[in-house]
Amino acid sequence: MTMNFTVDRDQFEEIVARIQGVAERRHTMPILSHTLLTAGPKAGPTGNPGLTVVASDLEIVIRCSQSLDVVEAGSIALPARKLFDIAKVLPKGPVTVVAREGNYVEISAGRGHFRLAGLGSEEFPEMPEKPKGKPVALDSETFRKLVDCVSAFATGDETRYNLSGILLEQQEEEGKTLLRMVATDGHRLAIADGEVPGLGGLLGERR
Q: Does 171 reside within a domain?
């Protein structure tokens, strides 16, 4: 198993930081404390050469991609927290990541050199494919405020699946396209609207 790519230090830290909230540190499956790194000619965000980083706790999946120079394609699962700790202390400039036989990687940037043991990519759980369809751009601050307004009203009872999520639906009012979020625990109901590009109805988990 080999892998070799070069990435800007700040981009590397950013993409590794994004998956920290999902990778499980105290899970009964040790592999879920790892993040799967895949470098290849089509691993970038638009199917171009790049890197894709995946983490999951089996409920939530986060997949981040970055365009970069790939010398040799490959994949490996690395401890998410340790990888982030390394990324934070790397000096500015290009970072070279090389996977070696025996499931470990060498990470180098300037005078910084690290060796990190990982697990084979085949041990990482199979993740669902990226949904097909046209993506919709949302203002992150608007989206966060809407979630904050209604999330406390979704039930924490996991046996009532239909009430443990948040309903997202498109509304048209006075010529404006709104995103409406609705949550209820069966006793209380919360509704919040925000002006965003159009969306179809879907159900999102409370988390």
A: yes
102: β partners: none
Residue 129 DSSP one-character state: P
pLDDT, tens digit, 9 for 90 and up, residues 3-22: 999 999 999 999 999 999 88
Tokens of residue 2, six digits: 């080999």
Q: Are 75 and 58 in contact (CB under 8 A)?
A: no
CA separation for the pair 21, 87 (Å, rounded) = 16
Is there a single domain that holds both residue 160 and residue 192? yes
Tokens of 206: 């409370």
First to last CA, the chain: 36
Can you give the pTM of this predicted structure? Answer: 0.74
pLDDT digits (tens, 9 = 90+) for 35-71: 999 999 999 988 899 999 999 988 889 999 999 989 9
Helix (H) or strand (E) holding 70: strand 69-72
Q: Are residues 112 and 162 in the same domain?
A: no
